[in-house]
Amino acid sequence: MQSHDEHFYAGLTAHKIPLGELFGHPGYFEEVPDSWTVIITDIRNSTDAVLGGQHQTVNLLATGSIVSVLNVAFAQKITIPFFFGGDGATFLIPHHLRNAAFNALKVFQKNTLDNFGLDLRVGEMPVRRIISDGHTLRIAKYYNSSIFSIPVILGDGLTYAEKVIKGDDYLNDSVYDDAAGLDLSGMQCRWDRIAPPDNKEEIVTLLVLSRNGNEQASIFRSVIEAIESQYGSISKRQPISVNQLKLNTTFGRLGTEMRARIGKIRMLELLRQKVLSLYAFIYLRTFKGRLYLERLVDMSDTLVLDGKINTVISGTVRQRKMLEDFLGNMESNGKIYYGIHVSNASIMSCYVRDLDDGHIHFVDGSDGGYTQAARMLKAKIKI
């Protein structure tokens, strides 16, 4: 029997007001049920992996952790909030799904180590503990485009959980079923590096953390409004454009995806995927294929609000320098910490259940955008 709490997130109203205005309405945010659990994944030493040229693999594995959990939730017809972080992900999981979700991630963790030599951390913290330890965790739902809604977090609850889980003394002794199989059906990583849209010069990956919990909402509103003032609406600063999308379906790319998805290379399946990729070149040039690409842009996950602002933006050097002036002033005044990374492309990995509405696309700046921005942010916090 499922309780009302299992469908808490699905039952939230998705707001269509401007995002800055949403932060001005604290009543639109609700407490996350204390029966839920925060689960966090990340690649240990991801900075070294990125600097070693494995940034696309790191992104693919972060996407894989999301897909493994979403497939569990989809089978149970439960909608959950999740947050892509470039080298990992964060989930808010109802009690009913906790065991299955955690088990799926532990199986994926073993596959990641066996096939890629990368250590995927999997940790958890009950929401009840976050609250009892004096932290807050409130959530709203926001329409990021006409068809795509995202969760928005206020409070420091997820930041606190991440700090504990990534701490040296964190220990999780949960038992899991290592006989369970991988289910990463729908995971794809077949797009080449994506150049900025026409008339744009660069891709900016930005992280912003509020230093004052009592002013978090107003600080985030100011930052979002500054981004929109410099770059325009989310559609105008979108790093993904149909004209710049190019498939990369080499055997190497397909093989990497297959190892992440099923844990081995199966030659017949690899050849089948190669044939299907040739069909995709044709399909994407049809009317239906073009419609899929347009929806792909609308359903690209370029803004993540997990108690921080995490976003990937396309724009000009002038726009970025003006935004950095604004952020620098806020940082000097003790309002925020921020990390930023600038590159000449974005990269994208995908979860495709079907070609109509069942797809979502995870975007990062190339060369480890989120990982590099986080590196800068963490260095500032330690000072």
Index terms:
383 residues, alpha+beta, eight-stranded mixed sheet, four-stranded antiparallel sheet, 12 helices
What can you see in these coordinates?
The chain starts with 13 loop residues before the first strand and ends with a helix. It is an alpha+beta fold. It has helices spanning 19-23, 46-51, 55-75, 95-116, 127-132, 157-165, 216-231, 251-262, 267-283, 287-298, 317-332, 369-382; strands at residues 14-15, 30-31, 37-43, 82-84, 88-93, 120-126, 138-143, 149-154, 187-188, 202-210, 300-301, 303-306, 309-315, 336-343, 346-352, 359-365. The mean pLDDT is 89. Strand 7 (138-143) and strand 8 (149-154) form a beta hairpin. It is 41% helix and 22% strand. The longest helix is centred in the first third of the chain and has 22 residues, at 95-116. The radius of gyration is 20 Å and the shape is globular. The chain has one domain (18-169, 190-247, 284-382). It has twelve helices and 16 strands. Strands 1, 2, 7, 8, 10, 12, 13 and 14 form an eight-stranded mixed beta sheet that branches. Strands 4-5-3-6 form a four-stranded antiparallel beta sheet, with helices on both faces. Helix 7 packs antiparallel against helix 11 (317-332).
